[in-house]
Design goal:
224 residues, disordered N terminus
């Protein structure tokens, strides 16, 4: 009898508690109060790529020139001209830094960047024009190609400065011009004496390439 009374006595209390909780939830929803939820994790801002430094851009230009020499898209004459301009920019940069305690002013940086923009356009133009290095299947032309490959490797590795490359390619341009003239005068062929003379000139050019690739001057030491 007691258990029955307790059963019917506790039940209204439980029902009342459940009803009260439900009413409270309905009031919260009807009042328009937003329910709290975990805030979304903040997304990190995209990383800004820094502008390439003067030295980095110089290196990029040299890599493009080296690729052009290796592929034959740049002739010896075109390469000599490009490297002469690069050497001039480097010389100007070095002089500006010497005059400002090792640093460049904002105006000087803008000027150098403009000059590199012009050089970049010239590299692209020379690499995509009709002038390319053509090599025949013979000893003379094979050696010409080998010399260009050695120069390209020196540019890529930094062992050759723009000034050194300009001089080497000017020498190769002279040899190429002589080969073309000799062949034109002999129906497209070279005489034994002409081959001997060209080989002698390439021997000297080979020594120059080796010397400049192993001297103290490097793109790193000359980096503006």
């Amino acid at each position: 009898m007691k258990f029955t009374w307790l059963k019917w006595g506790v039940l209204p209390v439980v029902v009342l508690m459940v009803s009260g909780a439900a009413m409270a939830q309905d009031q919260s929803q009807s009042s328009g109060q937003p329910q709290t939820s975990p805030a979304p994790a903040a997304q990190p801002a995209p990383e800004q790529k820094p502008d390439p430094s003067i030295a980095q851009r110089k290196e990029n230009q040299q890599d493009r020139i080296a690729n052009g020499v290796k592929s034959g898209q740049l002739t010896a004459g075109e390469t000599a001209n490009l490297e002469k301009k690069e050497a001039a920019i480097n010389g100007e940069t070095k002089a500006d830094r010497a005059a400002n305690g090792g640093k460049l002013t904002a105006a000087e940086k803008a000027k150098i960047n403009k000059q590199q923009n012009n050089l970049s356009k010239q590299i692209s133009k020379d690499k995509h024009n009709a002038n390319t290095a053509h090599y025949g299947n013979n000893k003379v032309d094979q050696r010409r190609e080998n010399q260009q490959d050695r120069i390209a490797q020196g540019i890529k590795s930094g062992k050759l400065t723009p000034s050194e490359t300009a001089k080497l390619e000017k020498q190769q341009k002279g040899i190429n011009k002589q080969v073309a003239a000799d062949r034109k005068a002999n129906g497209g062929k070279l005489t034994t004496a002409q081959k001997k003379q060209i080989n002698k000139e390439q021997n000297q050019a080979s020594k120059n390439i080796h010397q400049k690739k192993h001297d103290e001057a490097t793109q790193g030491s000359a980096k503006p």
